Amino acid sequence: MIRTRALGFSHPGGPRLRFADVDVAAGGTLLLRGASGSGKSTWLALAAGLLTPGEGTIEVAGQSVGALRGAARDAWRGATVGVLPQRLHLSADLSVADNLALAYRAAGLPVDRRAIDELLVALDIETLRERRPSALSGGQAQRVALARALLRRPALLLADEPTASLDDAACAQALALLRETAQRVGATLVIATHDARALAMFHGAAVLALEPVGVSA
Ligand SMILES: Nc1ncnc2c1ncn2[C@@H]1O[C@H](COP(=O)(O)OP(=O)(O)OP(=O)(O)O)[C@@H](O)[C@H]1O
Fold first, then answer.
1. Whose CA is nearest to atom 31 of ligand 1?
2. Protein residue whose Cα sits closest to atom 7 of ligand 1
3. Which residue of 57, 163, 166, 180 is surrounded by the most CB atoms within 10 Å?
């Protein structure tokens, strides 16, 4: 489902990042592990087609992501990839339900109210549907962002440091939810983390260990 070969990238003025090859089967889980600055967010951005590989290739569901351009890449991303970002980017002036509806509108698609309702129930946040983001706890807001990532039933779900600010109980709950919801939609799951608790919970999953990047690299 995900296949990388000799993948590498350099941000302008940043270090040369080179990533070991990975092969992840459909429905599998990959943990991206590495210290701060080792390139986890960059790898996720390459998988989502938000960056173009500087070296090598990344294929997602048989599609070479770097081969897509412009609007075709945007359409591919919208149909294929769900992202749970580190910063959730919920719209402060919109209710939970309208934040989810916005995901359709932003893609130029008709709003699927039934899919929204189903996800609110599945993630146990249906009672929050009229709340504004400022009235949500951190964990609740993360569930809303997860619902948004899953609305279009992505084949690939990318989560960037989903447990960074959570206590142990909330961490275990968030990871279990990620695993369950990815399974529910049949998505391949990639979690970028330097959290030992996540590594323990996904014991047995594929791990891509990123090399630390020296300041002078
Ligand atoms: N826009 C940018 N311009 C220049 N350098 C960048 C840029 N974005 C990232 N970098 C550099 O690329 C390297 C990898 O960054 P990246 O954000 O992918 O790491 P990370 O492992 O996700 O870090 P963190 O865990 O702190 O989020 C770092 O050295 C960073 O300073």
1. 37
2. 11
3. 163
Domains in the chain: boundaries: 2-209
Residue nearest to atom 11 of ligand 1 (CA): 14
Report pLDDT for 210. 92
Q: Is the CB of 142 under 6 A from ligand 1?
A: no
Look up residue 159 and give its two tokens: 């989560």
- The one-letter amino acid code at 17 reads L
Task: Tell me the two tokens of residue 174.
Answer: 């968030």
Residue 214's pLDDT band (cuts 50, 70, 90)? low
* Interval 80-132: pLDDT, tens: 999 999 889 999 999 999 999 999 998 889 999 999 999 999 899 999 999 99
Atom 17 in ligand 1: which residue has the minimum CA distance? Answer: 41
Ligand 1 test: best mutation among 33, 38, 83, 210, most atoms within 8 Å of CB? 38
Specify the CATH superfamily of domain 2-209. Answer: P-loop containing nucleotide triphosphate hydrolases (3.40.50.300)
Per-residue pLDDT band for 216 (boundaries 50, 70, 90) equals very low
Please give the share of the chain, as a percent, with pLDDT higher than 70: 98
The token pair at 84 is: 């749970």
Q: What is the pLDDT of residues 5-22, one digit of tens each?
A: 999 999 999 999 999 999
